Amino acid sequence: MIDPKLRHELLNALNRIIGYAEMLIEEAAAESRQKQCDDLAVIRCAAQGVAQHLKGAFSGRLAADAGCEEDFLPICATSRNHVPADAGKTEGSRILVVDDDPDNRAHLSRLLHSRGYRIATADNGANALARLADESFDLILLDVIMPEMDGITVLARLKADKTLATLPVILISACTEMNQVIRGIELGAEDYLPKPFNSTLLHARIGASLEKKRLRDQEMHLLSQAMLAEAALDRHRALTQAVAGIAHEINTPLGIVRTALSVIQNRLSQPAIAASIGTEHAESLEDILEAAALMGKHVDHTHRLIENFKKIAVDQMVEQQETVNLPETVQDAVDLFKLSAREAKLEISLDVSGIRQAPEWRGYPGYLRQILLNFLQNIERYAYPDGGGGRVEITVKDGMDEERRTPVFTLSVRDFGTGIDSGHLTKIFDPFFTTGRGRGGTGLGLAIVKNMVTMALRGKISVDSEPHKGTCFTVTFPKQ
Ligand SMILES: Nc1ncnc2c1ncn2[C@@H]1O[C@H](COP(=O)(O)OP(=O)(O)OP(=O)(O)O)[C@@H](O)[C@H]1O
Ligand SMILES: [Mg+2]
């Protein structure tokens, strides 16, 4: 009877021959060297035959051996050339091979290197942990039985380390080491690979683990982006609430100033006052009245600003949620603008033929009216500034949101006027950005519109514009 240790070593050696033959077959097949493929296949078959004999001589001795049969199955050259569909995405991944046997390390490194992975090696558990502390990897291939620190101890240390706990580990083990493998899987190993290596199984398990890690990393990245966006939105909300709060506080004393000023103007304008002051001080009286008028103009302007500051905190405005017919609501808003439109010679058309499903919207018609009025006022003021007027096309459609798979409405407001300078396009939604300060613009209109769309309507807004061709604002929001 062959000594089990000798048998184990013979099988190991044979499997290295099989493994190298398979790797060379793969390389030869990639370069269409058919003759070399055939010769190497003969070597591989012969080694597989000897291995089968060796195993046959011991059949029934070790129950766990049954699980090793797949390692000796002949593998045809074509199936070995199979590269998983996602191979490109995990190419270049960094793999740490930890094995005390130099032949195993060399064999694995070569096999994996030929698939485009970047390989580093460690010859024992302590060295592996030292490398992991300094470098980052995507996967570890970890031999279970090693002198000094075995694979299971390394795995336990990794899982106890917060920064390394999610790193996937594939255990490498002989079939007789099933108990340790089970312990490793319980500790959180991703998978295991039986020794001797079956190259197809090796690539399949490594590919699957790396792909899983790639998707997990992607998910973590998206999650952290969503958290950053949420934090930015929270800051924005806090800021707008503060602005609205201050505006509210200023509004009351400003109202008192306005009233007091009206009293002063009224009283000083009375003929009796002018008569009692006499011609001597008539000029001074005129100066006072002029100054009061100037103050009145600026107080009114400040009042308008304050009103806009208040509107910026959308959630502090009181609007009712209602179920309405969307085309009718849009038509109502356009009608509200009728007088101004006539004066500005705007020719407004409304096309709702793109609504194919139910036209009902569960939302805030008050906000939608304000959004439309802001667009139309901007068109009047900026798109057709010389008073010559022009066309405005409003369209409403319905459809599906691709990401969330929910029904949405899309509202577009297009003009054919001056357009927006490309350098301004990224700024127009910023509070206080305006090119019309001299024309009474505060630069808050579109900032308020954006807040209403994103916060109250839970939608998105975008703009398309080309100088001298026109501008189109598009708002998409859920039907309910
Ligand atoms: N339809 C448009 N055509 C050309 N420019 C536009 C149009 N709509 C907006 N703009 C540009 O975007 C800027 C910002 O618009 P926004 O409504 O925020 O502020 P505003 O109209 O200047 O001031 P406010 O609305 O607060 O009175 C405008 O100053 C203008 O330069
Ligand atoms: Mg505006």
TrEMBL record:
<dbReference type="Pfam" id="PF00512">
    <property type="entry name" value="HisKA"/>
</dbReference>
<dbReference type="InterPro" id="IPR004358">
    <property type="entry name" value="Sig_transdc_His_kin-like_C"/>
</dbReference>
<dbReference type="InterPro" id="IPR003661">
    <property type="entry name" value="HisK_dim/P_dom"/>
</dbReference>
<dbReference type="InterPro" id="IPR001789">
    <property type="entry name" value="Sig_transdc_resp-reg_receiver"/>
</dbReference>
<keyword id="KW-0418">Kinase</keyword>
<dbReference type="Pfam" id="PF02518">
    <property type="entry name" value="HATPase_c"/>
</dbReference>
<keyword id="KW-0597">Phosphoprotein</keyword>
<feature type="domain" description="Histidine kinase">
    <location>
        <begin position="245"/>
        <end position="480"/>
    </location>
</feature>
<dbReference type="Pfam" id="PF00072">
    <property type="entry name" value="Response_reg"/>
</dbReference>
<protein>
    <recommendedName>
        <fullName>histidine kinase</fullName>
        <ecNumber>2.7.13.3</ecNumber>
    </recommendedName>
</protein>
<dbReference type="InterPro" id="IPR036890">
    <property type="entry name" value="HATPase_C_sf"/>
</dbReference>
<keyword id="KW-0808">Transferase</keyword>
<feature type="domain" description="Response regulatory">
    <location>
        <begin position="94"/>
        <end position="210"/>
    </location>
</feature>
<feature type="modified residue" description="4-aspartylphosphate">
    <location>
        <position position="143"/>
    </location>
</feature>
<dbReference type="InterPro" id="IPR036097">
    <property type="entry name" value="HisK_dim/P_sf"/>
</dbReference>
<dbReference type="GO" id="GO:0000155">
    <property type="term" value="F:phosphorelay sensor kinase activity"/>
</dbReference>
<dbReference type="InterPro" id="IPR005467">
    <property type="entry name" value="His_kinase_dom"/>
</dbReference>
<dbReference type="InterPro" id="IPR011006">
    <property type="entry name" value="CheY-like_superfamily"/>
</dbReference>
<dbReference type="InterPro" id="IPR003594">
    <property type="entry name" value="HATPase_dom"/>
</dbReference>
